[in-house]
Amino acid sequence: MAREFARVGVVGLGTMGAGIVEVFAKGGIEVVAVEVTEAAATHGRETIESSTARAVSRGKLAEDDRTALLERVRVTTDMGELADVALVVEAVPERLELKTEVFAALDKVCAPETIFASNTSSLSITELSVRTQRPSKVVGMHFFNPAPVQPLVELVRTVVTEPDVVDDVRALAESLGKSPVVCGDRAGFIANQLLFTYLNQAVGMFESHYAGREDLDAAMRFGCGYPMGPLALMDLIGLDTAYEILEEMYRQSRNQRHAPAPVLKQMITAGLLGRKTGRGFYTYAEPGSSQVV
Ligand code: 3HC
C-alpha cells in the first residue's frame, strides 16, 4: 500500500530549503522545518513569509490559504521534533560530510521506515545512502530554483533504493503539482548536467571578452526563448553553489567542459555571489533583490 505523507521534515532553510517547505505546506502537508540556529530559523521563516506574500500579490495564492499554509509550518532548532515524520528532505549546503552528519543525526531520531531524501544537486546519493542505517530508503529529491515556481523535481534512485520508495515519492511530488522525472545517480543528474555545461561555457565567453553580459543573456533570451540569460541565471543560482556543482561534476567526469571557469573562483573570493550578496555578474538594489541597478 502506498505511504501517506501527512507530515514531513525539511532540514536546512536556505533558499532551496525554504522553498521546499513552502511547496509541501501549500500541498496541505504539515512540515517540521529544522535549522541549526535561532537566527537561521528566523531567516528561513521570513523567506517563506515573503515568498508567499509575493504569491498572494501576484494572485497565485488566496490570503486565507497563505495563513493556512503558514500554520502548517513549524520552524524549530530541535531535530528531535522529526521523530514521527514520513519523509525528511535535507537541503543543507553541498558538503558530503555535513549531509552525512545530518543523516546520522536523523537516523537516531526518525523511525526506521522514514524515507530520507536529499536535495543535493551533484553529490552522490549512493555515497550518502551507504552512510545511513537505511540505504534502501534514501532517494534524491532535487527541486529547482525557485522551488515554489519551477515544476521539475528530479527523483534519483540508486542501485539499492527500494522501487516502492521511488514510486511513493513520485506520487507525492505529483500530488504537490510538480512534474517529477526519475534518473540514476550521476553528478548533475539530468538537468544540471546539461544546464551547467552551458552556463560554464557562457561564463567562459564572458571571461575571455568574447561577448558582454547583456549580449550573452540577450542571445539566449531572444534567440532561444529562455526566461533568463545564463549570467542572470548564475546570479540567481548563486556563484558559490554553481561552482560546487561544476567542481563535483568535473571530479566525477573529468570532462574539461565541467572544469569551473576560473573567474568564478575569483568572484566568489571577492564576495560576488550573485543576488544573495547583491552583486554577481550584475549589481542588485540590495542583497536578495532581483532588481538590477
Ligand atoms: N508561489 C507561486 N507562484 C509564484 C511564487 C510563489 N511563491 N512567486 C512567484 N510566483 C509566480 C509569479 O506569480 C509569476 O507567475 P506569472 O508569470 O504567471 O505571473 C511567476 O511565478 C514568475 O515570478 P516573477 O514574476 O516574480 O518573476 P519572473 O517572471 O521574472 O520570473 C523566474 C522569474 C521564475 C526565476 C524565471 O525567470 C525563470 O524561470 N528563470 C529560470 C530559472 C531557472 O532556470 N531555474 C533553474 C536553476 S538551476 C537549479 O535550480 C538547480 C539547482 O541545483 C542549482
SSE layout and pairings?
Blueprint: E1 7-11, H1 15-26, E2 30-34, H2 38-57, H3 63-71, E3 73-76, E4 87-90, H4 96-109, E5 115-118, H5 125-130, E6 138-143, E7 152-156, H6 163-175, E8 179-183, H7 191-207, H8 213-224, H9 230-237, H10 239-253, H11 262-269
Parallel strand pairs: 1-2, 1-4, 2-3, 4-5, 5-6, 7-8
Antiparallel strand pairs: 6-7
This protein binds 3-hydroxybutanoyl-coenzyme A (3HC).
Structural class: alpha/beta
Poorly predicted ranges: none
Note the gap between the termini. 54 Å
- Describe the sheet with the most strands: 8 strands, mixed
Helix content: 40-55%
What bound compounds does this protein have? 3-hydroxybutanoyl-coenzyme A
Widest sheet, order of strands: 3-2-1-4-5-6-7-8
What's the CATH C level of the largest domain?
A: Alpha Beta
* Principal-axis shape: globular
DSSP strand tally? 8
How large is the count of helical segments? 11
The mean pLDDT is 97
Description:
With 293 residues, the chain is an alpha/beta fold. It has two domains: 7-183, NAD(P)-binding Rossmann-like Domain (Rossmann fold, 3-Layer(aba) Sandwich), CATH 3.40.50; 191-277, N-(1-d-carboxylethyl)-l-norvaline Dehydrogenase, domain 2 (Orthogonal Bundle). The chain is 46% helix and 13% strand. The chain has helices at residues 15-26, 38-57, 63-71, 96-109, 125-130, 163-175, 191-207, 213-224, 230-237, 239-253, 262-269; strands at 7-11, 30-34, 73-76, 87-90, 115-118, 138-143, 152-156, 179-183. Strands 3-2-1-4-5-6-7-8 form an eight-stranded mixed sheet, sandwiched between helices. A hairpin with an 8-residue loop joins β6 (138-143) and β7 (152-156). α1 crosses α2 (38-57) and α7 (191-207) crosses α9 (230-237). The protein is globular. The termini are far apart. The mean pLDDT is 97. It binds 3-hydroxybutanoyl-coenzyme A. 3-hydroxybutanoyl-coenzyme A (3HC) is lined by residues 51-52, 54-55, 58, 60, 121, 144-146, 148-150, 192, 195, 227-228, 233, 237, 241.
